[in-house]
Write a structure and sequence with these properties.
Blueprint: E1 5-9, H1 15-25, E2 29-34, H2 37-49, E3 54-58, H3 64-77, E4 81-86, H4 101-129, E5 132-139, H5 150-170, E6 175-182, H6 194-206, E7 215-218
Parallel strand pairs: 1-2, 1-4, 2-3, 4-5, 5-6, 6-7
Helix pairs in contact: 1-6, 3-4, 4-5
Length: 232
Amino acid sequence: MTAPVCAIAGVGPGLGLALARRFGKGGFAIALIGRRETALTGFVDTLSSEGVDAAGFAADLAEEQSIKAAFDRIKSWKGPVEALIYNAADMASDDVTTLTAERLQHAMAVTLGGAVTCVGEVLPGMLERKKGTIIATSGGLALDPYPQWAALGAGKAALHNYIGALHKAVSPSGINAAVVAVCGIVEPGGLFDPDLIAEEYYKLHRADPSDWRPELIYRPEAADADYNATTS
């Protein structure tokens, strides 16, 4: 039997790799989507050494046609995507008092536009099969904005809203859509250890439909509520 495909858009050495590892160990073939082909090759080598079937697909997540081409290659590799995780964002810092429309548009193209395009590539097949999982990574800035992270916060808030609307639209058709707001700095060994967070994503994927929910706020009780408050 061919392994189902989990596509992860936006992969780094922290949460992205942890998600790939967790879903790979859950029986998925992992399609990694990111801008830098050399980085993707390194992640694939790491996963392969751990027994995870993975491949990299380079794409600019701010560009619609680049994303579509990547998903065409994924379909040729293993077939349709059963689980999509959107973990990409424009992580630059922008002060709200000097933010320009051009800068905001670019941030939105990555944080929200890329997610919309990725969903558009996988959702028709999921609806046809009446099965699938879509999870996006949000963050504390979507819930509590800070002036020094204006573009990132706006993008995450928009993504949060989009996935919430998607959940209402597709959950009656058997598609599990949710957003995870990670309200802390992801780093190994602490409350926001990437492996701990990845496990929560996998639990969302495995949840019974009666327990599906549009959002998970990941903020352990001992976490610093003001972790993203910075001063200029």
